[in-house]
Amino acid sequence: MYLTLSDFEIFFACIPSTLSNMTLDQKIGQLLHPCIQPSVSEAARTETLGGVEPGGIFLFSGTREEFQQTTRWFQANSSVPMIVSSDLEHGAGRMILDASIFPGTMALGATDDEDLAYEMGRAAATNA
């Protein structure tokens, strides 16, 4: 799926109204991006946040199912869509325990093979 200019126009058009409807605490929360272990319970997630609604989360290692459940839980408990990040520069397997791990980007660059780089990126994108 590719985004079009009209997709961005729609997205950016809703920002002023979203911000005007947020409390100061929610706006401050948008600046935060806590590190989360996907295997922890919902109670532990809630305690970690301490009542703050962060703008995003960084996920440490876990299974694919834990990543999906944790991401869904945070998105469902946020009034604004969250940014979800993790260390995936060697493929999803670096953090998602049941996914593929790829060689480092220095090794990939040393091959000087653009087709191989493309295929690695494609495989990494579809593997997560």
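the 2nd protein, sequnce then structure:
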Amino acid sequence: MACLAAQADTDLMARVDPADDSIRRYILRRYAYDPRRRERRHQIVAAFDSEAEFEAHFREAHAQLVQDRAAGTADPDEHYSGVVQDPGYQRLQQNGRLVRKAIARGVNIDTLLDDLELPSNVGIIRAGRDTSSADIRP
């Protein structure tokens, strides 16, 4: 695999679990064909607790990919990218999915919203009437 050569030089870097939601992590992803799923998708290569370590690994992986492309052994659509996930990112995204599914099923989400912190990419807009005013006529 093309990434193995790049991995050899970075094995001493402080890798972390990409699913560890208690820390900020820099996640290196590879967009490539996944034969098990029979589709192209982003696959996690490694996660680091330091931006400098992430960038070093990214440069090595990209250099190896350029060599593989020159040799004709890499797919032209294949590439590397990275995402930064702050502590609590996965929990917030799960909360957003929970609220979306509850709304889709017609559940009253008032009690959910009191207890859940939502991610910054989720907004809730409510429409309704104020029935406490005397000016409202049926």
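The chain has two domains: 2-85, 88-122. The radius of gyration is 22 Å.
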